[in-house]
Amino acid sequence: MLSVFLILSMNLFSCTSNEASNKKIILEKQLPNTSYRIFETKTKTNEDDVEQCAKYVSYKVTEDGFKIRGADIYNLTSLLLNINKKDIIISKNIDTRFFEIEYSGIINDKNNKELLNEFLNKLNLKIEEFVQLESNYELYFADKKLIKKFESKNNKTNVLVNGVQYSFKNISLSILASSLKDIYQKNFSAVENTIQFDAELESEKSLNKNLEYLKRKYGISYKKNKSEVAKFKITKTNH
């Protein structure tokens, strides 16, 4: 499944300009249970075809699939494989372009991977996975009595980003780890997911300050260790 931030609909970054851009279809496929169209665009535009700034990326779950707008190869790989952008390596000789995807069908890891491979193949690109040993922050509940005070009262998971403020509702320790990984571009994992809780976090604070805050406020601590991290390298094919 996709990242926890992409629960229903999300503009990862949003800003506007006045001009719209042209787009062209580079790949289209119609199968019995799946169909998609991939467009290449000169600039990033929203659903109203209004040009957006360089940071704009939009992912939206539809009734029968999803739509992605304003994405470069980093964004598409991250969204479709549910991996952090820091774990993606793209050769410097690959041009920066923007893409849109309209997908209808079941959303799962298998279909997402097939879609990404078809897309990369169209651009004469390939993706290779390898493993690298890196430092990791392993989160755990150091004070379960304290975290119980923030145990969620409902079963609807939500992550709201308002500027630098992160508001978490009914999250697991794994979701918090994923969020910290996105914020600080470092490796985080979780030992257990036995308690669903609510929490708040300010992304503008340093990592050390937020780790201290999590321990003081919620009883969440960490252990530093080494872990194997999957990396994905995108390069041009030989032909």
Q: What this model shows, in words?
A:
The chain has about 240 residues and is α+β, with helices and mostly antiparallel strands. It has five helices and 13 strands. Helix 1 (about 75-80) runs antiparallel to helix 2 (about 110-120). The chain is globular and about 55 Å long. The model is unreliable at about 1-10 (pLDDT under 50).
List low-confidence stretches.
Answer: 1-10
Q: How much strand content do the residues show? A: 35-45%
pLDDT averaged over residues: 87
Distance between the termini: 33 Å
Judged by helices, strands and strand pairing, the structural class is alpha+beta
Radius of gyration from the alpha-carbon trace, in angstroms: 19 Å
Tell me the major beta sheet.
6 strands, antiparallel
List the helices and strands and how they pair.
Blueprint: E1 9-13, E2 23-30, E3 35-41, E4 57-61, E5 65-71, H1 73-81, E6 88-90, E7 98-104, H2 109-122, E8 125-141, H3 144-148, E9 158-162, E10 165-171, H4 173-184, E11 188-190, E12 197-202, H5 207-218, E13 220-236
Parallel strand pairs: 6-13, 8-11
Antiparallel strand pairs: 1-4, 2-3, 3-7, 4-5, 5-7, 8-13, 9-10, 10-12
Structure in a nutshell:
This protein has two domains: 9-123, no CATH class; 133-229, no CATH class.
